[in-house]
Amino acid sequence: MTAGRNKPSDNLARKAGRAAHPQNLFERRMSKFLRSPPSVRLAANVIVTATLLIVVLGGVMMRVLDHKEYGSIWIGMWWVLQTVTTVGYGDYTPVSAIGRILTALVMLWGVAFLAIITAAITSVFVARAQQERAAAVEGAAEGAERTVDYRLDKIDAQLRQLRELLETTPPAP
Predict the structure, then answer these.
(1) What does the alpha-carbon distance between residue 125 and residue 110 come to, in Å, rounded to a whole number?
(2) How is the chain split into domains, by residue range?
C-alpha cells in the first residue's frame, strides 16, 4: 500500500468510532436517550420534538388527504395541534375516511403523549425516593459500622489493660 492510502484496519476503526459517536443530531439524541436513564429534561425534549414532528407531518397529510376541508397546511397543523393535545375544539373535523383514520392515529398519539409525560414525571419521583432511601440505609449502615468499630476498639483497650495488669501483678501465694 502507498503512504497516502489507509489500511483496512484504519477504516474499521474510523467506522467503529463513527458508530460510537454518531454525527447526526437525531442519532446522537437517540443514542443518549437509549444509553442513559432519561431525565425529565431529556424526556420532555424527546416528547416535544416528536409532537412537533407529528403536528407538522399531520398538518401536511391532512392538507393532502382531505384538501376540501383543510384549505392550507396551517389549518391542518391547527387541527393536529388541537387533536394531539386532546383539546379538540371541533372547528375543523375530517370528512373523508382517510382523514378520520389519520384523526384516530393523532388521537392515539395525544393519549400516549399525556401518558408518557405522566410516566416520566412519576419515574423521576420514584427514582429520587429510591436514591433518598438508599442514602438513608447507607448512612445507617455507616453509623452502625462506626458503633461496632468503637466498641471493638474499647474492648481492645480493656484487654490491653487486663494484660498489663496480669503481667505486673505477682501471682498470689
Answers:
(1) 23
(2) 37-135
| pLDDT tens-place values along the chain, 173 residues long | 455 555 555 665 555 555 555 577 777 766 766 676 666 677 777 778 888 888 898 889 888 888 888 888 898 888 888 888 777 777 778 878 888 888 888 888 878 877 877 787 787 778 778 888 888 888 887 877 788 888 888 888 888 988 888 888 777 77
d(CA 68, CA 30) in angstroms, rounded, equals 38
- Count, residues in the chain: 173
The dotted CATH code for 37-135 is 1.10.287.70
State how far the Cα of 45 lies from the Cα of 28, in Å rounded to an integer.
13
CB 70 within 8 A of CB 76: yes
CA distances for 104 relative to 10, 89, 99, angstroms: 50, 16, 9
Residue pair 58/76 in contact (Cβ under 8 Å)? The answer is yes
Residue 13 has which C-alpha cell? 476503526
**55, 74 Cβ separation under 8 angstroms:** no
Residue 54 near residue 123, CB atoms below 8 Å: no
